[in-house]
């Protein structure tokens, strides 16, 4: 079922705020069978808001309104609904109870600004907001259901799963929730994966819809069905997919590479250490972003200069002189030095040319040597990603974690990461 | 002057792409005097696109259209313009020349998909695209100027500064460019800064408009004037501001804390080292995000475990046993150990409880000790930011860099970071 979205707020017009709420709304409701087909954004302008609501209500059966529920004078949603539907604003008892309860928890009495949020159109009903002071508003206009939500993202998120979803389901019982399976892949782009599915899974059933969400470093693959009867079919598709690209699938739902690597290290009771040059601490930062990282990670070394590679990690100066800092022997020695100094079981070491300066004919910007593995089992490989400094550091950090993931899983080959489609 | 924005693309409706183009357009054009007042987003739906263009053209004198210029069948902008204005699509010689030149540079001949991009409404004119294969389109409908731009962000950015801006200036010579001065602050929120300006700069002139753009970790403050005649007035305002909150102003325009700290270290010919526990490499990663960091940064230590604090940094085990890892003596010893092992001139060391686990009554989640300064001049301070693990790591990393910035500038007091407004 198609729905519309009206976002309000001056900050959305000036570009001072990048609107991420509408993506949240679209994604959250799509899996329930409600697709945003039309999105309008206007500033805090009463006449524009009323005109747009009036127009959209002739085109759609439901509109989600976001923003304008706050306590200040530029929060105009209730007033716009009142004008639109020619209903007076009256105090709603359950809105008042909510505001009083909310203020009470903070040990303050409701002030005039808080009480403004209890004045809703006479025929409106209240949408529960489990976090903030502003209640949401549900109201009919023409044959359209208007659901008004707050602009504060955590409040919006809570309501999308709660009162808003409930109101939509109640208003449109025929909308069919989609059953989505989300897989996370590293090292393969959307078009390459599409091509692989087209080539290698020729009997893909139309009931299982494939969707993608490009992200860096992970690609999300969605397998959607609309009917529980097709669950077995979806499972079969996932099985087929795993047969052809299983090594690239790192996890599911909100998994990150760090989550997966830490989980593997925990299960195998291994300690990790890191020796980073060109990634400059980003791998360590990604690992320690995960709560519980301390169970498998004790020491990281950012050996950004050659002198520190020698003094801190014990890399032989002669190796650096002979092969350069970006070389197989040096990255191997960095990993060995980190393992020795940390007593860890496995290591990642990286040394590369992030750029934009520092490239040579021999080792252009984007070149990186990575070492990974255990004390007696270190692997090394050279990669080349001339994609700009920030993207280079992001990709190399993820790549290194993925190589370790594959090592911990016993995969031995270095895959063809980010293979390009044959150009036309 | 108010303008409208029409964005097209299915990926914007599903939420698979968060729209950052419209913020780029709004910010880029606002300084030129063109304010986005109305924004509509629709999928790749020809009838909806035509209907919205028609409606918006009755309300505004200019519309920026974004997306739909690509070579594939779901790129519908030219076709929509043709329907809207009842003009046939014809091959434009300068569009063809652009496509041929673009393909030629890549050593390929233009194919049918490329050539589709040369078919524009008969009365349209071409907007130069210095990067991509798709030219932009300018066309009048009713009394409205339609400027169509590509969805690929770098192409859009280049055209906003080039052909699009030129067309707007030519079409609307009376629009007044704003003269914006952008300052970056750390450690102060928007409402606190607003209050300070209200309290301490009572004679602020109305010609100098104050704007904010909230970001983490830096807050952007904008001082806007519309007339060059007020440049001196704006400079005077900036001077006043620097008198009251100068210590919080870290830089201007796109400066980051790392940029500023690296610049200071370079000018003072000092080398930095880092000993990170709870930030887990994020400070090193922020520093090495900057090209040229190697001139002032050689070694970072991520000493996540107590054993590594002892073995790698030489922290006395007795200190950890007696005071705990999150303590003044330990963070000081971490800084001293890093300085000694790296031969650097100044250091930052951090040890804290990022959470969600690991807090105690004595040292709750959000507690962090920071040490910063030079060998003979180490400062330490305890802070408390119970804001969730990711935000804690982000704030503490920035805070540590800001403390070092102030140290390098000779500011001695630890400021009242992120002071709250008095609650009502």
Distance between the termini of chain A: 38 Å
The CATH architecture category of the largest domain in chain A equals: 3-Layer(aba) Sandwich
- Mind telling me the CATH class of the largest domain in chain A? Alpha Beta
Strand content of chain A: 15-25%
**pLDDT average of chain A, as an integer?**
94
Query: Segments of chain A where pLDDT lies below 50 for 5+ residues?
Result: none
Helix content of chain A: 25-40%
Q: Largest interface by residue count?
A: A-B, 72 and 74 residues
Biggest pleated-sheet summary of chain A = 6 strands, mixed
Radius of gyration of chain A: 27 Å
Q: How many structural domains does the protein architecture of chain A include? A: 3
Characteristics of this structure?
homodimer, 424 residues, alpha/beta, Molybdenum Cofactor Biosythetic Enzyme, Chain A, Maf protein, 16 helices, 17 strands, 24% strand
Secondary structure blueprint with pairings:
The structure is a homodimer of 424-residue chains.
Chain A: E1 2-8, H1 10-14, H2 21-30, E2 35-42, H3 46-59, E3 62-66, H4 77-85, E4 89-91, H5 93-105, H6 112-116, E5 119-121, E6 125-127, E7 136-141, E8 144-149, H7 153-161, H8 163-171, E9 179-186, H9 190-200, E10 209-213, E11 218-225, H10 231-245, E12 249-252, H11 257-267, E13 272-276, H12 282-288, E14 297-303, H13 306-311, H14 317-323, H15 328-342, E15 346-352, E16 367-374, E17 377-384, H16 389-409
Parallel strand pairs in A: 1-2, 1-3, 3-8, 13-14, 13-15
Antiparallel strand pairs in A: 4-5, 6-7, 7-8, 9-11, 9-12, 10-11, 15-16, 16-17
Helix pairs in contact in A: 2-7, 3-4, 7-8, 11-16
